[in-house]
Amino acid sequence: MAQLYYYQGLTTSAIADELGTSRSTVSRLLTYARENGLVEIHIHDPLAHAESIETRIRERFGLPIAKVVSVPETAGERAWLDRVATHAAGYLNTLISADVVIGIAWGNTLRAIAERLIPKHTVNVDVVQLNGSGTARSIDNSIGADIVLRFASNYNARPHSFPVPAFFDYAETRAALWRERSVKELIGLQRRARIMLFSIGAFSGQVPSQVHSGGFLGEADIRRLQRDGVVGDIATVFFRADGSYEDVALNARSSGPSLRLLRRARHSICVASGTGKVPGIRAALRGGYINELILDEPTARLLIEDGAPAARRARAS
């Protein structure tokens, strides 16, 4: 029956007539054949297959590593994020070993990864928070500190939280605090990080970025970012479509790191899920802030459909 159906293309009705049985029996036995390995079905779609898209992303943007995670497209972006975060958590265990510093941003994506980490014992590992998560109403840093503690506990590492606001009211306050020895020590640790783990903040999406939806930005801040042509952020440092960020006004009040640190990291890993993040991903690639990208398949397809030129690889030696 399987040969007649799959090789000769006969209908179930024609097979039933030829073999003197019923259509329901033919359907039942064809199902049995699939379920028991007598028939294997392979779909070869060069445009949609994840591995093909990975190759196209690596070639288009000059990335050494790109991983596209297959997801059920109709399930919605929250389900996509779950799949992507699970993959990222497993991938981290292949990278993290002894004597390494890991820089961690915070947000919905990083929290999802932290919840799916696979325990691994390491020696002499430090996990450092890249930017504060306090708001204008509270200095509470529990959002970022919780993620750092989860990573540190998972890898038997030393946690280093950053108990400052995500954004200061005054750039002068930030500049003064950055002169303190304790803050200099933490920033020095950030600069030694070989692994940087972050996502892309976006203004829109089914799963809104925490920095944009959690009360960190006022209406005036958002209007200013829009006037500045901002398309996304990494660790609360905002950038434009061309990857530039140095003269974005709000960055002078941000507790996030210089994005040059991402260019120097051995593993600058962006984990992103959701089509609303595509403009930010593309801009971060242009800026050279990403050298490893993990994302869901629908977002990956949209990323390469635009026909954007290859990223400018501005990575420092």
Give average pLDDT, whole number.
Answer: 89
The succession of helices and strands, N to C, reads HHHHEHEHEHEHHEHHEEHEHEH
Gross geometry: elongated
Number of domains: 2
Strand content: 5-15%
Instruction: Please give the CATH architecture of the largest domain.
Output: 3-Layer(aba) Sandwich
Strand order of the largest sheet: 1-9-8-5-2-3-4
Structural class: alpha/beta
Please count the beta strands (DSSP E, at least 2 residues each): 9
CATH class of the largest domain: Alpha Beta
> What is the CA-based Rg, rounded?
24 Å
How far apart, in Å, are the first and last alpha carbons? Answer: 63 Å
Q: Specify the helix fraction band.
A: 40-55%
Biggest sheet details: 7 strands, parallel
Indicate the low-confidence ranges by residue numbers. Answer: 307-317
Instruction: Supply the number of helical segments.
Output: 14
CATH third-tier fold name of the largest domain = Rossmann fold
